Amino acid sequence: MTSPDIWPCPQLAPHPPTRTGRQLTRLDWTAERPYRVRVLAYTCSCRTIVYELLASGGTYVIRRTYQTVPRKETYAGPWARCEADRMWKLILTGEASL
Predict the structure, then answer these.
(1) Could you read off the pLDDT of 21-54 as tens digits, one per residue?
(2) Contact criterion met (CB below 8 Å) for 63 and 17
(3) Cβ–Cβ contacts within 10 Å for residue 52, how many?
(4) Distant-in-sequence, close-in-space partners of 21: CB < 8 Å, separation ≥ 6
(5) 30: DSSP letter
């Protein structure tokens, strides 16, 4: 993996912490890609791993992208909007097992 210091930071999006000391909620990741998506929120691109909250046909998923060569994408979900927002908050606060 690439060091976080290699990517310039535009300071425009949140930087999720790696872990908190609390019990972590586990997210199940899959390579199954939704057909059409719209990006609703994202984390900063200065990190090796970028997360995006996506809307896809009335459901919501989270995409995890490893900015490596080759690029690797995995998805968690689908959820209803309220559950997707909860999962997104867990990622941003370091309370999700990534």
Answers:
(1) 666 788 899 998 888 999 999 998 888 899 999 9
(2) no
(3) 19
(4) none
(5) B
